[in-house]
């Protein structure tokens, strides 16, 4: 099997009285087996809706879903056996200790070695003896992560997995994701923070208002980013000489300093600048967070 998730023209419409709201709008997406796939978008973009459709927690209005080659509705029992799932709002019985909760969930899965559960809890800094109702959000999230990873599933579906975690635990989580990929597992991970998935994702998709706006490798998306340029001249230069250059946007002149963005090759800008005395030049690729924000804000 080369495809772990296949979505075709997937649409989900929520109705409330006479009003209707579209959670997904014709989403077509493919996730390869064995890859880490980052699913990015602002809150309310449709990430959790997609994940719930993958697991048949809700039903699509139209379109098709295949997960690990299975129909989430018809093959739910077999599919859930092979999936590790962390909901964006993970909850558990507050009367149990973390260890009791994990042992119960392990038993439902037919048994998971206690050593495996203990290893994950230790790595994440989770106290198994602590009552769940006494845990902070971050520590409850650790319980959710252990139960998702503990049975070494073929597919991990993680909805905002680092919510509430401190930076050190976030890094441990990313290490666990990388190890899962090395072991041949597929990871589908939603987030609204690019930096959270950049270090481990093979590919990412960006969703906005229920529609796919980009899907590619991190390197390819980085190649699309704009060049941020600052040029310091010895004397003021005419703005009109630079404003109409191909690929130049966001041009600003502040005294003898020119700043702008360049989409594509900066050759025309550099040739225009060379007609003047340049005393300083700096060019940086656009930060990926800024690139993703531009996708989020696009009409």
UniProtKB/TrEMBL annotation:
This protein's record includes keyword S-adenosyl-L-methionine: no
Q: Which UniProt keywords apply?
A: ATP-binding, Nucleotide-binding, Transport
SMART domains named among the record's database cross-references: AAA
Q: Where is the ABC transporter domain?
A: 5-234
The family database entries (InterPro entries) matched by this protein are listed as: AAA+_ATPase, ABC_transporter-like_ATP-bd, ABC_transporter-like_CS, ABC_Transporter_VariousFunc, P-loop_NTPase
Q: Name one GO molecular function term.
A: ATP hydrolysis activity
This chain belongs to which protein, by name?
A: ABC transporter ATP-binding protein
SUPFAM superfamilies named among the record's database cross-references: P-loop containing nucleoside triphosphate hydrolases
């Amino acid at each position: 099997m080369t495809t772990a998730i296949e979505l075709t023209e997937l649409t989900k419409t929520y109705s409330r009285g006479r009003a209707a709201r579209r959670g997904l709008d014709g989403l077509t997406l493919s996730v390869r087996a064995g890859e880490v796939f980052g699913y990015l978008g602002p809150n309310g973009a449709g990430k959790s809706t997609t994940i719930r459709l993958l697991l048949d927690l809700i039903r699509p209005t139209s379109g098709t879903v295949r997960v690990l080659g299975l129909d989430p509705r018809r093959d739910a029992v077999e599919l859930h056996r092979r999936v590790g799932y962390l909901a964006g709002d993970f909850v558990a019985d507050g009367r149990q200790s973390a260890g009791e909760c994990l042992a119960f969930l392990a038993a439902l899965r037919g048994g998971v070695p206690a050593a495996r559960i203990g290893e994950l809890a230790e790595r994440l800094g989770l106290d198994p003896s602590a009552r769940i109702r006494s845990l902070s959000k971050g520590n409850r999230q650790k319980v959710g992560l252990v139960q998702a990873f503990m049975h070494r599933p073929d597919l991990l579906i993680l909805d905002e997995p680092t919510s509430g975690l401190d930076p050190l635990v976030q890094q441990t989580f990313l290490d666990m994701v990388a190890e899962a990929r090395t072991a041949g597992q597929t990871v589908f991970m939603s987030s609204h923070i690019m930096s959270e998935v950049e270090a481990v994702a093979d590919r990412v998709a960006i969703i906005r208002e229920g529609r796919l706006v980009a899907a590619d490798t991190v390197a390819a998306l980085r190649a699309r980013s704009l060049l941020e340029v600052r040029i310091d001249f010895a004397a003021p230069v005419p703005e009109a000489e630079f404003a109409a250059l191909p690929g130049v946007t966001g041009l600003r002149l502040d005294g003898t300093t020119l700043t702008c963005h360049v989409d594509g090759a900066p050759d025309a800008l550099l040739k225009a600048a060379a007609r003047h005395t340049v005393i300083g030049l700096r060019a940086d690729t656009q930060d990926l967070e800024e690139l993703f924000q531009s996708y989020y804000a696009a009409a």
